[in-house]
Amino acid sequence: MVISFSCSASRRPTRSLALLFILVVMKTPVHGQSTSEFVSIDCGNNSTYYDTITEIQYDSDSGFAEGGLSHKISAEFMAGAGNEQQKTLRSFPDGPRNCYTLPSTIGKKFLLRAMFTYGNYDGLNRTMDGSPFLFGLHIGVNFWEAVNLTSVDPTLTIWKEVITVAPANLVFVCLINFGTGIPFVSALELRPLEDLMYPFVNTSVSVSYFRRIRFGQATEIITRYPTDSYDRFWESWPQNSYPWISVNTSGRVRRLPGNHAFQVPEGILQQATTLDTNYSYFEIKMGVGPNLDPKNLQLLPIFHFAEINLSNQNRRFNIYSDNDLLFRDFAPSRLRVDSMYGNGRFLHNPTATFLLNKTRRSRLPPLINAFELYTLVRMDNLTTDSNDVHYMKEVKKRYNLARKNWNGDPCSPREYSWEDLTCDYPKSNQNPRIVAIDLSANGLKGGLAISFMNISSLENLDLSHNNLTGAIPDYQINSLKVLNLSNNQLDGPIPDSILQRFQDGLLELRLQGNPICSKVNDTYCSNKKNTTPTVLIAVIVPVVLVSLLVVMCILWKLCWKGKSGDHEDYAMYEDETPLHIDIRRFTYAELKLITSNFQSIIGKGGFGIVYHGTLEYGDEVAVKVLMETSIADSTDFLPEVQTLSKVHHKNLVTLQGYCQNKKCLALVYDFMPRGNLQQLLRGGDNSLNWEQRLHIALDAAQGLEYLHELCIPAIVHRDVKTPNILLDKNLVGVISDFGLSRAFSDAHTHISTVAAGTLGYLDPEYHATFQLTVKTDVYSFGIVLLEIITGQPPVFMDPQTVHLPNWVRQKIASGSIDNVVDKRLLDGYDVSSLQSVVDLAMNCVENAAIERPTMTEVVSRLKMCLPAVPRLLQLTISGVPTISNEGNFHSDHAGRMSETSLLSGR
Ligand SMILES: *[C@@H]1O[C@H](CO)[C@@H](O)[C@H](O)[C@H]1NC(C)=O
Ligand SMILES: *[C@@H]1O[C@H](CO)[C@@H](O)[C@H](O)[C@H]1NC(C)=O
Ligand SMILES: *[C@@H]1O[C@H](CO)[C@@H](O)[C@H](O)[C@H]1NC(C)=O
Ligand SMILES: *[C@@H]1O[C@H](CO)[C@@H](O)[C@H](O)[C@H]1NC(C)=O
Ligand SMILES: *[C@@H]1O[C@H](CO)[C@@H](O)[C@H](O)[C@H]1NC(C)=O
Ligand SMILES: *[C@@H]1O[C@H](CO)[C@@H](O)[C@H](O)[C@H]1NC(C)=O
Ligand SMILES: *[C@@H]1O[C@H](CO)[C@@H](O)[C@H](O)[C@H]1NC(C)=O
Ligand SMILES: *[C@@H]1O[C@H](CO)[C@@H](O)[C@H](O)[C@H]1NC(C)=O
């Protein structure tokens, strides 16, 4: 049995030892922490107890997490467990993200450790069954690290540590389900640090533990509290035999006054490892294994040195990271610690190898007392505005809303935001805000909570079809534009503050279906959508007209059975659709209504004209009225709509509904307020910056990747071009018009051989083969990428007609790559990322389809060009120590295959 923290018996703090420790602390000016500030949680255990080894108090996790299931490790491993925390765990089979909420203090620096002991708790032998067992960790709203338990001995404990700054008075630790095994956690430990410690850690940079080692002859494998008052884990250096020499001192090892950065325990500094004097260099090799991505490994080493060998001979050495000289001719100070950390500069060191090499003038070989190695964790994503979070949690509690994904931060990161909330993500350095809440038909009971109105950025609140009772409280509402309280049990007078805004036309109020409406008679109690009275007329008149038409139409039908007139729009429900289409079917009249009689044209495309529209509930839509009405008779349109209605991806425009009958043929999409990429690239002064361009390119690539790889059969877009890449209000790229071209071109191959596709974007191979494949889209995407880089259209005059790829080739051949870049970018781009994107684009526009990359490849290459470390690459960075009582460091899945290996030489 191998589970154990091997704190040896002699180290166990008996009461007298603990007392002694306190005395020592009092004598030295250490800014120690008392355990009262520790937060220690034994996940899956329901009791509070003091750990027998550390005497730290552990609490049940019941107040810190929602949901999840508590488990014990399998009985066969129980007896061998080294401590209580290893025996239980909490697993989270439901939901993509499950968070623990730990108390903290805003701006406070702390160390957070999560521990994982699988112990075959589910009896599935999951770590050893040969399939990947991997899940993720977020610290707050940022990706921290992956936990890879694939092929890990079930009895081992794996731990992860992060040093970070609390963004609020609470901190979330989230387990992310990647679909490769149920996430679980055995223990969580939060240890406050001094603000001056780890000075390179701030609100936007955290560091994750890769290795923390003490040298010399330690009696335990892991040294922690109480030796380290911050309860950091120090692994002992396993090498003590020749030529390694352990030295120690009983003398005091001091710090320079004011040096509080690391607070290495004195007991650790009193020991060191050096070499026999015949040897001259000392390698610390952390063994980055094959599945780490060395290219993206950003390491921060901290070396702690104190001369404790009190001979009079000198000791000087150079310190290298890989082959880079970090510190020249360093001489450790006598009985005083020097912590060398290069001011927090992260290093590129693919092998995680560090070298201490004796200089010529030195008599003694290098010596080292302690070493820490961290990797960078970017804290780019911001948490939701803390007031919004607070009030949202009140709402959740008040109405007892146990929603699966209402967990952790409400808006961030975007892909885990709470369902039924809409958030606004400002581009500048501001926190996301909640702008819309839709809790209609959620069985809400009781009064209307004032917390909703305290969410000061809220614009749209829909609480219709609930059982809310009592009066509407008198709110001072600020930003609210739509308040839908229809079909509840609300009664009593409507507060003036709300009424006033309604009368001023600032608020769309809906109260129909409430007792309140039996007493008052105003438009907000009528069934139709209403904003201000003036708008109301505009709405009511057409509604009345339409109703008249309906009546007439029915009469007409009754009288002239079989003969269809102009209004067969309303007969459409008669023609049964054999297909099951989940989205809304609109009538022509409805389209007319939502587009205000097709008033506002927002675009003209190959397939028709696009109008702006507003649905009943205020959602903006784009209505694409297709020109070829003859397609209505075609059998291709509805199957195509059915396919499109099933395609859901954040980078593909969402189809809200359609209209199909003799009178109309239209598709209704989500409205994309920022227009299309072509407009953005060519128009105006508000030009996109380099990073925005890359993000949009990546968005589009991901949308296409989804169509190509995840739709079965694959969907070939056939008309990828900048006008078909739309932008939502946060400038997220969304692809439109996919699939449509198929419905059209297939239906008309006998009429027209003109391929779907647009001049300048069309795959040259198509002209030869007339085959449209996914690689056709890759070619067009390459052109899009070139447009993004150059700002030029695909075909232009310079001075003769030139095709963009040829122009780029010429420019590159005749000079530097900077000549191709859009002048509007000025110098705002990174040359190496530019080079990679140009290479990728040129690769996509290879003449031979077979030479072009797949969209999956495109996506991963684009991710590498983005300045932020993409999530998948971060995934692979980690140093995961494992604990056993065998005295060995176990190899670890995430990378460090070898034991901490060391070499020495003359
Ligand atoms: C929780 O910890 C207590 C104290 O160590 C222990 O007695 C109890 O058995 C544990 N509970 C479970 C479910 O393991
Ligand atoms: C855990 O303890 C709390 C109170 O201490 C109790 O209400 C709850 O039922 C317990 N849960 C389990 C699973 O034992
Ligand atoms: C777990 O799987 C491994 C590898 O397949 C096997 O050797 C081992 O006996 C299994 N253990 C149990 C308890 O099923
Ligand atoms: C930030 O959020 C974005 C979007 O949700 C996500 O793709 C990215 O990985 C996050 N960044 C970090 C560092 O977690
Ligand atoms: C150590 O330094 C000496 C010069 O002092 C140099 O010749 C030698 O190559 C270095 N060793 C290593 C392993 O870099
Ligand atoms: C409201 O409550 C009543 C009884 O209390 C129940 O019959 C009704 O279904 C509820 N309505 C909604 C929308 O939950
Ligand atoms: C409401 O007002 C309309 C006209 O404004 C009127 O025709 C109708 O009778 C009124 N209904 C009630 C219940 O007062
Ligand atoms: C997880 O660990 C296994 C076994 O060490 C390794 O094969 C796999 O590549 C790792 N996965 C990741 C994503 O690091």
From TrEMBL:
InterPro entries: Kinase-like_dom_sf, Leu-rich_rpt, LRR_dom_sf, Malectin-like_Carb-bd_dom, Prot_kinase_dom, Protein_kinase_ATP_BS, Ser-Thr/Tyr_kinase_cat_dom, Ser/Thr_kinase_AS
Enzyme class at the top of the EC tree: transferase
Keyword ATP-binding: yes
Listed GO MF terms: ATP binding; protein serine/threonine kinase activity
All copies of domain Protein kinase, residue ranges: 596-869
One Pfam family hit: LRR_1
Reaction catalysis annotation: L-threonyl-[protein] + ATP = O-phospho-L-threonyl-[protein] + ADP + H(+); L-seryl-[protein] + ATP = O-phospho-L-seryl-[protein] + ADP + H(+)
Protein name: non-specific serine/threonine protein kinase
